[in-house]
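About this split. The held-out portion is used to measure sequence recovery: a designer receives only the structure tokens and must propose an amino acid at every position. Recovery is the fraction of positions where the proposal matches the reference. Here is one held-out target exactly as it appears in the evaluation file.
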């Protein structure tokens, strides 16, 4: 009997090891529309609560009208402030029309507001709303943590064609401040790739970008390229995805990062955050600051730097927006 038990245990261990090896080996070949992650940055229950909260605010606004809804959203002790969840509202031109912790924002146009890494958060949230509803990331002061700047998963939803509402879940323990020098090097790298494409044409450029031994793959810094329909043109560490459509690809927090990249490219260029497999970590998810740029009306390209390799930090100085008052719990 003991020998049988020992044999079963040995078989279980061997099977587990074999499965682990197989999983590791296959890791670079991610599915077309979903990036896998063993440890998502946000709890799925928190994201579900966030989505339900924003939809509740959207439906409330549709029921009672813009004026009454914004009065309620402005109330720090009202029903749309729940811990570190709170509702804000903007029109589609970028003018703030409700914010319980930033009364100084109300009536001001914030369409060009950027966070410390250059991410245009209001433009991004507005684009999410134009799709009906969607997620994005940005950095914003947390009123529960003495106005400390923190990474946030934002979710926004359109009320009607003139305005939208949003909220977010703070990722308080995630270092998301990328050094300026790293961002400057990233932009220079992308600019050099665009220049190469303009001077040499699309076919030769894509061959160069997909060459893992070429000058556009520098360790875990590499050029990726897509057309505006979301079709993969260059992805040197995941060649099996070439030609596939990833328009609706999501990271492990539900962010449709290809959609968000296209939004940036349509503006000419821009930064964004997302989770993506890091080739230096066997394709384990890592926070990535991407920078994308349009090549022409048919395609765009980009690159990104990973948080684990960029000496990212938490906020070490006062918030970029100035201190905001705490919520009703006094935090």
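Reference sequence for scoring:
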């Amino acid at each position: 009997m003991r020998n049988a038990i020992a044999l079963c245990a040995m078989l279980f261990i061997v099977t587990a090891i074999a499965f682990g090896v197989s999983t590791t080996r296959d890791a670079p070949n991610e599915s077309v529309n979903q990036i896998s992650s063993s440890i998502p940055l946000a709890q799925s229950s928190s994201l579900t609560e966030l989505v339900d909260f924003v939809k509740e605010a959207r439906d409330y606004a549709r029921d009672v009208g813009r004026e009454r809804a914004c009065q309620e959203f402005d109330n720090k002790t009202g029903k749309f402030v729940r811990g570190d969840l709170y509702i804000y509202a903007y029109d589609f031109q970028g003018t703030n029309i409700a914010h319980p912790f930033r009364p100084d924002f109300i009536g001001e146009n914030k369409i060009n507001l950027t966070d410390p890494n250059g991410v245009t958060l209001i433009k991004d949230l507005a684009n999410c709303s134009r799709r009906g509803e969607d997620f994005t990331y940005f950095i914003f002061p947390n009123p529960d943590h003495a106005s400390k700047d923190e990474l946030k998963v934002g979710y926004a939803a359109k009320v009607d064609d003139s305005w939208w509402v949003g909220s977010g879940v703070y990722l308080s323990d995630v270092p998301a401040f990328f050094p300026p020098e790293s961002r400057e090097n990233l932009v220079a790298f992308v600019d050099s790739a665009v220049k190469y494409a303009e001077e040499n044409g699309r076919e030769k450029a894509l061959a160069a970008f997909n060459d893992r031994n070429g000058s556009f793959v520098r360790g875990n810094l590499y050029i990726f390229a897509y057309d505006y329909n979301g079709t993969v043109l260059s992805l040197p560490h995941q060649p099996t995805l070439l030609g596939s459509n990833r328009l609706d690809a999501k990271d492990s927090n539900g962010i449709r990062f290809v959609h968000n990249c296209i939004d940036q490219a349509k503006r000419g260029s821009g930064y964004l955050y997302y989770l993506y497999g890091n080739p230096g970590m066997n394709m384990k998810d890592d926070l990535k600051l991407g920078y994308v740029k349009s090549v022409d009306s048919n395609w765009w390209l980009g690159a990104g730097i990973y948080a684990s390799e960029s000496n990212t930090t938490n906020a070490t100085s006062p918030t970029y927006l100035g201190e905001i008052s705490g919520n009703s719990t006094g935090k």
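Annotator remark: The longest strand covers residues 148-160.
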